[in-house]
Write a structure and sequence with these properties.
Blueprint (H helix, E strand, L loop, with lengths): L1 H8 L3 H33 L1 E7 L3 H12 L4 E5 L6 H6 L1 H20 L14 H25 L3 E4 L1 E6 L2 E5 L5 E11 L33 E5 L3 H12 L3 E5 L12 H7 L4 H13 L2 H7 L3
């Protein structure tokens, strides 16, 4: 259209051709400038003061606080939802199940002591797990809101540190994005470890993640590891009716915890640990410790 308009208005063919070339050269130059501008806009968009790898309690808190202090921050996590292991498959869902199972124990065993008698009490495991999932969803959406409020840029994918100032993020569809940064925080959290020749199938041999989503209450359950994660899961399923045995390599459960006297004196939220330690002290066995979590 520009060429036709130039040709129609030109007083002579020679002058028109010169004018047309000038206009076309200008258009090409403008196009180059626009493309160059978009390139640098993209480069600047992926240039950060800080990139945090991991969106768990360590990562998302650091990212939000850094943004509040004026830094341009990005946070990378391969999980679909924010919150890391803790909010998605760790502390939060396990506490939701601990709370629900404790209410069941109160209703089935303790209410009668204060004159409240119930009949026909039963467990609807599907509803219990659904409630746990709703709690998780609500809290992870809360972190998403805080990211948006504090202008933290979220990248969904796996991060590879290419250098002290460059990170490559590969999304689930395989697309790679290069991030430039002045500082990096690594807050990748933890994952369950399989025992040799005993791989997780999340059906019969389950990790702590699988233990949060069993489709039925097992008749018997062996928990390998007497730390707080194993004891929490053991207590949930013991309360719901499973016969639980805890196996711990060391000579005490919760090896990294302080003494039960200290726990008792300071009234921490480790009431579960306190009860299990008392049971172990009375019965003297690891199996008794696991079963005692149900009471």
């Amino acid at each position: 259209q520009a060429e036709d308009g130039i040709r129609d208005r030109s007083p002579s063919r020679g002058l028109g051709d010169v004018y047309k070339r000038q206009v076309l050269d200008h258009c090409r130059l403008k196009q180059v400038v626009i493309k160059s501008s978009k390139f640098w806009e993209l480069k600047l968009a992926n240039k950060f003061d800080l990139v945090v790898i991991g969106a768990g309690p360590g990562g998302y808190v650091a990212a939000i606080r850094a943004a509040q202090l004026g830094l341009k921050v990005a946070c990378v996590d391969k999980r679909e939802t924010l919150g890391g292991t803790c909010l998605n498959v760790g502390c939060i869902p396990s506490k939701a199940l601990l709370s629900a199972s404790e209410k069941y124990i109160d209703a089935s065993k303790n209410f009668s002591e204060i004159g409240i008698e119930l009949s026909g009490l039963k467990i609807n495991l599907e509803k219990m797990l659904s409630k746990k999932d709703r709690v998780v969803a609500e809290l992870t959406k809360g972190i998403q809101f805080l990211f948006k409020k504090n202008n933290v840029m979220r990248f969904h994918g796996e991060a590879v540190i290419k250098s002290a100032s460059e990170i490559e993020v590969t999304s689930v569809d395989g697309k790679a994005t290069q991030l430039q940064t002045d500082k990096i925080i690594i807050a990748v959290g933890s994952e369950p470890i399989c025992l040799p020749n005993l791989a997780f199938d999340e059906k019969k041999i389950v990790s702590s993640t699988g233990a949060l989503n069993l489709d039925r209450v097992p008749k018997r359950l062996v928990v390998i590891g007497g730390g707080y994660i194993g004891l929490e899961m053991g207590s949930v399923w013991s309360r719901l009716g499973s016969k639980v045995t805890v196996v711990e390599f060391l000579n005490k459960i919760v090896p990294n915890a302080v003494s039960y006297t200290h726990l008792r004196a300071h009234e921490t939220d480790s009431d579960l640990v306190w009860r299990l330690l008392l049971e172990k002290k009375k019965g003297g066995g690891g199996g008794g410790g696991g079963g005692g979590g149900g009471g």
